[in-house]
Design brief:
The complex is a heterotrimer of chains A (about 240), B (about 110) and C (about 190). By secondary structure, chain A is mainly α. Chain A has nine helices and no strands. Chain A has two domains: about 40 residues; about 180 residues, no CATH class. In chain A, α2 packs across α3. Chain B is an all-alpha fold and about 110 residues long. Chain B has one domain: Helix Hairpins, CATH 1.10.287.3510. Chain B has four helices and no strands. Chain B is elongated and about 65 Å long. Chain C folds into two domains: about 70 residues; about 100 residues, D-Maltodextrin-Binding Protein, domain 2 (3-Layer(aba) Sandwich). The mean pLDDT of chain C is about 80. The chains are: A mainly alpha (about 240), B mainly alpha (about 110), C alpha/beta (about 190). Chains in contact: A-B, A-C, B-C. The interface between B and C is large, with 56 and 44 residues.
Amino acid sequence: MILKSSSSRIVISVIKHIVLIGMLGFLFYVFFGAYENLEALYNTFGKDYFSRYAEAETGSKNLVTSILLDYRLFDSLFEAGILLIAVSGVIWISRHEIEEKNAQFMIDKFKTPDLFVTFSRLVYPLMLAFGFYVIINGHLSPGGGFQGGAIVATAILILYYIDAEKDTNINLIVTVEKYIYIAILLLATASYFTRGAFFTNVFPLESSADAKSIYLVVLNVLIGFKVALGLWAIFTAFLKEGR
Amino acid sequence: MDPLLTFIVILIGFYGLATSTNIIKSVFCVTIIESGVILLFLNMGNLDGGRIPVDIIPDTLIADPLPQALMITTIVIGSTVTSLSLMLCIKVFHHFGSVEWVDVLGMERGR
Amino acid sequence: MGDLTMLDFTAYALQVLLIIMAIAIVVHKNNGTIIILITTFSLITASLYVINRAPDVAIAEVAIGSAIIPLIYVISISRQREFIVLDKAMDDFIISDNTFTGRGYILLKRFTDYYHLELNLCNDVRLCSLGSGKDQKLCEDTNVDLIVSHDEERGVYVLKGKASSILMNKLEQMAKDYDDIEVIKFKDRDFGD
C-alpha cells in the first residue's frame, strides 16, 4: 500500500514536470515566432536620434548618461526612490526593540586572516579612488552614479573585513540618504525655472557643453553617494543579522 | 541567434522557480531570470552590431543606448529586491524553523 | 554563418557556458555550492554585456554581483545552519567544569545533529538579566531560538521556544524521556506584525 502511494506520487511528479516543460516549450515557440518576424517591430529611429543629437543637446559624450540624467531623468529619479524604499524595508524587517540583538557567543569567534587584512588595507583606498573616478567621469567615459556608487559601496564593505567589530549607526546612514534624495529631487526640478520644463538640464539649451557638464557631474555625484549609502545600509543590516 | 540562447536561460530560470522546494533556491532562480532579461534587452539593442555608444562619430552605427540605460537601473533594483527577499527568508527561518516551502506552507495552514 | 569573427565565437561559447551554469544552479541541491556558481554566473553575464557593447551595465554588474550579492547570500544561508540557545540557568546543566558535558548540552547536541544545524550557546549578561516575563518578547524580537532556564521551586529545567517552529515539536518529543526537563511553547502573534 505504501509502495503504491509512493509510486503514484512519482507518476504525478513526472506528469507535472512534463506539463511544465511543455508550457516552457510553448513559450519558446512563441518567442521563436516573434524573433522570426522581427522586421515588423524593429526600427532604429530612437537610435538614430540619439546618435545625431544627444551629444549636442545634453553635453554628454556618454549617451547612456545622457539618457539617464537628461532624457529619462524621471525614470532614474524614481529608481533611486525605489532603492530608498527597499532600504527602509530591509531595515524595518530586521528591526529589534530589545537593545543589542546579537549576543556574544561562547564557542565560535569570527577571525579574519592576517594576510587578508593587510591586503585589504592596501586595496581599500585604491578602490575608493576608482569609485570616485567612475562617478566623476560618468559623462565622458563608461560609468556614472549608479556604477560608481556600487564600487564605493564595495570599497566600504572591505572596511568590515579589516575590522569585523566595526560599529555603524544605520539610522544616520538612512537619514543622510533621505536628505541626498531630496537634494536630487530639488536639482531635477530646478530646470522648470530656467528652461520651463521639469526633469532636464538646468542650463539652457544653447549653452556650451562645458556648462552643461557641471550639472551632469553634480547630479552624478549626488546619485553616486545615494546609491553607495543605500547599499551600505543594506549590507550593514545583513552583517548585524549574521554576526 | 543570440536572443534565442538568452531566452533559454530565462526558461531554465522559470523551470527552477517552478520546481524548487527551498525558498533560497527560488531567490537564486529569480536572480537567473533577471540576468537573462537584462541580457535579452542588450541583445535586442545590439542586433545590427555597431560601436559602443560612448564618444561617437556622427552617422556611424552604434548600439542602442536606451536599453542599456534602463538595464543599469534594473541591476541596482535587482540587488535590493534580492536583499529584501533574503532578509524575509532569514525571518521566515527564525519563525518556522525551516526554509522548505512544504513546511512553511503547512505550518501556515495548520494554524 | 560563414564569416564568424573571433568575438562572435567567444559570445556563442560564453552563452553556452551561461546555459550550463544556469542548469547547474537549478539542479544543485547544496545551497553553499550555489553561491560560488552564482558568482561565476554573474561574471559570465558581465563579460557578455561587454561583448554586447554595454560597458556601463558590465561595470554595474561586476561591482554588485562580485561582492555584495555573494555576501548577503552567505550571511542568509549561514544563519539557517545555526540554532541559538540562550543559557539563563548558569549552572552545570550545560557547562560542567568548563567543558560541554552537561546533560542538557548532550540533549541539545543530539537534537541539532539530527537537523544538521550548528549549536550556538550564548549567555549574554544583558539578555539574561531580563525577567522571565519578557521571555516571549525576547524570543520574537531577537534571533534567539531557545531559552534555557532553571525553575528553583519545582526543580526542573525549562526550555522555552516558539510554537510556530517545527524544530520545537521535535525537541518536545526528544525531551519526553527526561523527567526534569520541561518544554514550553509560546503561542505567538501573527507573523509580520
